[in-house]
Design brief:
By secondary structure, the protein is of the alpha+beta class. The chain contains five helices and 18 strands.
C-alpha cells in the first residue's frame, strides 16, 4: 500500500470569526484565499490550504483529506476499499476544483465521516508561507499533523483505515477511565509521522467524533511561546505540558472554539518502516499532561 498523509481537514464550525482569531493569533496559521465554496481557509506551509472552515454549526470535523503521491497510488486505495466492501466514488469536477487537486475520490468511514482521497494538491510557492507569529510547522511528507477519533465499532474502523487505506499499527496505550474500566487506544501511521490517526474505542457514540487535532512545530521554544499566548489570550488549557510515552512528543492541549481539543507539540519520534516494532504502553505520558 502507498504512503498516505493527512493533507487537509474541513471543519464544521459555529463561529468563523472566533476560529480566525484562534488560528492566526494563537496557533500562528496564515490565512489563505477564500475557497470556491465560500469557506475560510488557512495555510501551514506551501500548500494553498490545509484547514477549511464551514460555518454550519456542528462544531466537529466535516471531512478529512488524505494525500497520496499520484494516480497509481489513488487507484490502489480504490481497489483496496472496494475489496474491503466499501463504496468509493469519483468526485465531481466541481468538488475537485473546489479542493484544488488533480485526482479525487470520495467515501465515508464507518462512523459516517466524509473521507476524501486525492493526489496533486495546489501549491502556493509563488506566495511563500508566512506565519503571522513566525511559527514553522512540521509538515512535508508527514502531512499536516494527526487526528484522534472515537468509534463504537473498532472492527469496522480497522477494516476501513487499515485494510482499505493501508494505515499500519504503530502501538497501543491502555488508558484507565476508572477503577474498573479501561480502553486500548490504537495509533496508526501511513508515513514517517508516528501516527497520522489514532482511535479511541468507546462502548457508545460520543457527541463529537473528534477528540483532538494535533499540530507539530519545529522547536520546543515555539511550544513555550504558544503556552504564553494561551495565557495572554484566555485560551483554556485542557492538559498541562507533558511528554507522551509512545511518540515522545512534548505538548500541551487546549480547547478550540468548537469545543474539541487541539494538541500543540514538538519533538515526536518518526517511524522507519524497515525497523519499527509495534509495542504497547500502560500510561499515556511519561510526565505531565495533567487534566486541568
Amino acid at each position: 500500500m502507498p504512503e498516505i498523509s493527512l493533507g487537509y481537514i474541513g471543519l464544521s464550525v459555529s463561529n468563523t470569526e472566533a476560529w480566525t482569531r484562534y488560528g492566526q493569533d494563537f496557533l500562528g496559521l496564515m490565512q489563505a484565499e477564500v475557497g470556491a465554496d465560500g469557506s475560510t481557509r488557512f495555510r501551514l506551509d506551501d500548500h494553498a490550504w490545509r484547514l477549511s472552515l464551514h460555518e454550519d454549526g456542528k462544531d466537529d470535523i466535516a471531512y478529512l483529506g488524505f494525500e497520496v503521491a499520484g494516480a497509481d497510488e489513488l487507484e490502489m486505495l480504490r481497489a483496496a476499499l472496494l475489496d474491503s466492501g466499501f463504496t468509493v466514488d469519483d468526485a465531481t469536477p466541481e468538488l475537485r476544483a473546489t479542493r484544488g487537486v488533480i485526482g479525487l475520490l470520495t467515501c465515508t468511514d464507518p462512523e459516517g465521516l466524509a473521507v476524501e482521497l486525492y493526489y496533486g494538491p495546489t501549491l502556493a510557492t509563488h506566495a511563500p508561507f508566512a506565519s503571522p507569529l513566525g511559527v514553522r510547522f512540521m509538515t512535508g511528507e508527514q502531512g499536516l499533523g494527526h487526528v484522534v477519533l472515537s468509534t463504537a465499532d473498532l472492527a469496522a474502523f480497522r477494516s476501513f483505515y487499515l485494510d482499505g487505506l493501508g494505515f499500519r499499527l504503530s502501538d497501543t496505550i491502555r488508558m484507565a477511565l476508572g477503577p474498573d474500566f479501561a480502553i486500548e487506544l490504537e495509533f496508526y501511521h501511513g508515513n514517517p509521522r508516528h501516527h497520522t490517526l489514532a482511535v479511541a474505542p468507546l462502548p457508545v457514540p460520543m457527541p463529537k467524533r473528534t477528540h483532538h487535532i494535533m499540530l507539530q512545530v519545529e522547536t520546543l521554544d515555539q511550544v513555550g511561546h504558544a503556552l504564553d499566548r494561551a495565557g495572554a489570550q484566555g485560551v483554556r488549557l485542557t492538559q498541562s505540558l507533558g511528554r507522551h510515552s509512545n511518540d515522545q512528543m512534548v505538548s500541551f492541549y487546549c480547547e478550540t472554539p468548537s469545543g474539541f481539543e487541539l494538541e500543540y507539540g514538538w519533538g515526536a519520534l518518526e517511524v522507519d518502516s524497515r525497523t519499527w516494532r509495534t509495542a504497547r504502553h500502560d500510561t499515556i505520558s511519561s510526565w505531565g499532561h495533567h487534566r486541568l
